[in-house]
Amino acid sequence: MENMVNYKDLFGGIYKNKKVLITGHTGFKGSWLALWLHKMEADVYGFALKNEDSPNHIDLLNMPIHQKIGDITELGALDNYLQEIQPDIVFHLAAQALVKKSYLDPVETFSTNVMGTLNVFEACRKTPSVVAIVNVTSDKCYENKEWNWGYRENEPMGGFDPYSASKACSEILTASYRNSYFNIENYNSSHNVLVASGRAGNVIGGGDWAEDRLIPDIIRAASRGEVVKIRNPKATRPWQHVLEPLSGYLTLGWQLLNQNVKYAEGWNFGPDMNSNLPVDEIAELSKKHWNDIKIEFSKDPDDQHEAHLLMLECSKANKLLKWKPVWGIDKTLEKTIGWYRDYYLDGKTETENHIADYVNDAIKANITWTIR
Predict the structure, then answer these.
(1) With 0-12 CB in 10 A as exposed, 13-18 as middle and 19+ as buried, what is 241?
(2) Contact at 8 Å (CB) between 222 and 370?
(3) Any idea what DSSP says for residue 191?
(4) Per-residue pLDDT for 166 more than 80?
(5) Which residues are 2's β-sheet partners?
(6) Which residues contact 166 (CB under 8 A, 6 or more apart)?
(7) Helices marked H in 86-143
(8) How far apart are CA 196 and CA 13, in angstroms?
């Protein structure tokens, strides 16, 4: 199926031969984004810490891209790399992305997610080639009021735990740089840079082995023939396949590279409302796709606070960006659990085929970014 996809025409063909820098390319979302951009014939560069997990997705993909192992908290190294490669666009994904780890090490979390983001903006500000920046934050950047409806882009930023607060800070920082240095009123006069941010929900898909995430925890236990203990079974999240927010980030990049100043804002990329499900339901649905999955629900009294209800309102992206999800929750879980099942049972890495399937389904649905 993959050979049927004309990748280079996606997103108006904007990424072909563009120099694209991904910070955090060794991570879960970053590695999927790197492969998709590579398939679209972009000149892909990555700057990130080495992924020490075994296995890890970036090594399994073994892509012919340019990579620099480095820490975004070290401004000098990051600045030197941007000066060396002179990218056209930067997708900033490097982050400390785990709530539980943020409680254990808040200094690293704030250092990476706030000062690291500051360093990315500063390095971009000094690099003449950069004309577009997409900062990837999180749905957890909003001040969570345990509402039964989704958060809109103009809701207040906030955060109970250090991770959520750090992502709120990253959004405030993005707005500050957009106002102070990349103001759209001065676009093409004092500067030529457009900045946007993307806020996604709970992202799942093959190749994620992070600790304390629902699907990786389920998969690790299944691969060892163990029972996984699930905490916070009634916590509701907006579940989506990794390719969904990536298509949103790429759509944003497309518009920014085309100098459409009205898109230099914050954007939510979440699933349809029927994909906002509690943890226990996601866990039970996962069992349909791999018989080895065995689950036990438990509540650890020592667990730190996590939000119970969290949903995104995505009508802004739906209407203005013409972006919408492609896969519902059933297809998302089929693809996600199937990826791991095929990897553990048959040694297959199905990432390229899943990107092809996703693009073909988007073409059938006449999604805007597939139309030349």
Answers:
(1) buried
(2) no
(3) B
(4) yes
(5) none
(6) 96, 102, 109, 110, 112, 113, 114, 159
(7) 99-104, 106-110, 116-125
(8) 20
In whole angstroms, give the CA distance from residue 29 to residue 166: 19
Q: Residue 258 has which token pair?
A: 């085309």
Question: To 5 degrees, how large is the angle CA 243–CA 205–CA 108?
Answer: 95
Q: What CA–CA distances, in Å, run from 362 to 68, 99, 245, 275, 367?
A: 33, 32, 13, 18, 5
DSSP H or E segment with residue 335: helix 329-346
pLDDT at 324: 95
pLDDT digits over 360-371, tens only?
999 999 999 999
pTM exceeds 0.85, yes or no: yes
Report residue 13: phi and psi, to 5°: 70, 15
Are residues 148 and 308 in contact, defined by beta-carbon separation less than 8 angstroms? no
Q: What is the pLDDT of residues 31-89, one digit of tens each?
A: 999 999 999 999 999 999 999 988 999 999 999 999 999 999 999 999 999 999 999 99
Kind of pairing between the strands at 236-241 and 276-278: antiparallel
